Amino acid sequence: MSLDERLKDWAETRQHTPDTPALLARHEQRKRPWAWFAAPALTTALVAALVLVLVRTPAPTVDPPRVEPIAYTSGLHMLDGRPVELEGRARFDGGTVVLIEGEVTVEGHEVLVEGRRITGDRFRVALDPLRVFALRGEVQIEDRDQALRRVLEGQCFPPEPAAPEPPPVEEAAPPPTTPAAPHPPDLDTLRAAVLKGEDVRSDLQWRLRLNPDESGSWTLMAQLEQKQGNPDAAIGAWLEVVRTGAPLEVQTARFSAARLMEHRPAEAEPLLRAYLKASGPLEAEARLRLGKALVAQDRTDEAEIELTRVVEDHAGTPTAQLAQSLLDQDEVFGPR
Amino acid sequence: MESTDAQLVERLAAGDLSALGPIHRRYGTPIASFLMRVEPTITAQDAEDLSQEVFLTFVDTVGRYEEQGQLKSWLFGIAVGKARNWRRKRVLRWLTGKRHGADAAGVSLHQPATDERVAARQRLHRALAQLPGSQREVVTLHLIEGLSAKETAEVLGISENAVSIRVHRARKALEGV
């Protein structure tokens, strides 16, 4: 038998048909976490009512089951049918996201943090220190004293120092490649052009003027800038993909931006940590880069932990060998 | 007429959770089997739990599902992540002395073979278990599950070239078994 046939033969011994009703029950239970204690509470209430009828004496009041706020940890959650991207910890309490630590990106939810009530279309809130980024539409921040602040789309509260600029979209209003055409070329056409090394910046800018949140265009823009040797512009575009993309795109963008940030380790670090937290296919490479970024910031103790993990988790791979060679540098980690 | 994947996903994204059952019936077996193949120490019980987690994660992230690829590939992508987490936790369990799963597979592997075919399967099973996880993922997706090199690359977030290299290395390691 050939290897392929032997693999298929072996695979036949490794089959399992999971139980659909069990999945649906688990999903149902997850939707109604109170169901666990609702039934006992109902029984208690019935028994109490029966005792009341029989002995005609006042029975102790049975409090209705209290619906506890649900605690969430890092990950993407659907709350009230809308996504909540959490990196840290939060509670979902009566339709409000209460951020406990880390940062959260929400769409249309109300976020409660440090006594402030924050509402808006799509925005990100980070703690320690508090920062609010308006990703889409206007965001309103109501302070404890009911003072109202407004943060416009693309802006941050409190205002932050200049971040890497994404490649210009509005300026220079470049002529589209086909001025008479009513629409810009589609993404597939542009992707093929970028692969061939053609300069389709003006067409991408055209698409982004029509839809600044189109992550596919930002991805192509990043690839184009990278190909043309403009790392800062490429980083800016990748960060736009982080802002607008779907989870897999965001992961790719985080890694790609971090890869271009060899000389900006402090900025690369949060991107790599976010990538590792969300679990991506390039885990070993991301952790190796995180180790390097930490070494560059003189945080060798933390770097040693990350690099050792690469060596242990990915033994025998070139990435693990690279991590080991870094760990073996006496001038960085001291003699072993 | 049976609903297409796109119709089911659209219903699920719109909050119609009754679409989850048909999706699971369609892809539950491939995903659970994939989990048992990509991590040979995963038992049927583990595969049951992990495959449920794959579909629950899909429900949580369905709003971000893109129809550019196949639903099956998208689910395999989630399953790869679950398998990797499982592998990491298994190492921790092993380090803390709480062995699990591996023993179940280990026992059957050390039983005397009744015929040459069973013995060959056991040798292959051991060899697969010793491959690096990254090569096992490629072997399982590409050679066993039948995904194309392009689809495998998309699921794993690597280039097609990397898929070819890993397949080549894995073949080399397995050919002599």
Q: What would you say this structure looks like, in words?
A:
The complex is a heterodimer of chains A (336) and B (177). With 336 residues, chain A is of the alpha+beta class. Chain A has three domains: 88 residues, Jelly Rolls (Sandwich), CATH 2.60.120.1440; 92 residues; 76 residues. Chain A is built from 13 helices and eight strands. In chain A, strands 1, 2, 3, 4, 5, 6, 7 and 8 form an eight-stranded mixed β-sheet that branches. In chain A, helix 4 runs parallel beside helix 6, helix 6 runs antiparallel to helix 7 and helix 10 runs parallel beside helix 12. Chain B is an all-alpha fold and 177 residues long. Chain B folds into two domains: 97 residues, Rna Polymerase Sigma Factor, Chain: A (Orthogonal Bundle); 66 residues, Orthogonal Bundle (Arc Repressor Mutant, subunit A). Chain B starts with a helix and ends with a helix. In chain B, 37% of the residues are buried. About 9% of the residues of chain B have low confidence. The chains are: A alpha+beta (336), B mainly alpha (177). Chains A and B meet through helix 1, helix 2, strand 1 and helix 8 of A and helix 2, helix 3, helix 4, helix 6 and helix 7 of B.
- Note the run of SSEs of chain B as H and E: HHHHHHHHH
Number of domains of chain B: 2
Q: Helix proportion of residues of chain A, in percent?
A: 40-55%
H and E string of chain A = HHHEEEEEEEEHHHHHHHHHH
* Count of DSSP-assigned helices of chain A: 13
Oligomer: heterodimer
The span between the termini of chain B is: 47 Å
Low-confidence stretches of chain A: none
Number of domains of chain A: 3
Secondary-structure arrangement, i.e. CATH architecture of the largest domain in chain B: Orthogonal Bundle
CATH H level, superfamily name of the largest domain in chain B: RNA polymerase sigma factor, region 2, helix turn helix motif
Beta-strand percent range of chain A: 15-25%
Biggest interface and residues each: A-B, 45 and 54 residues
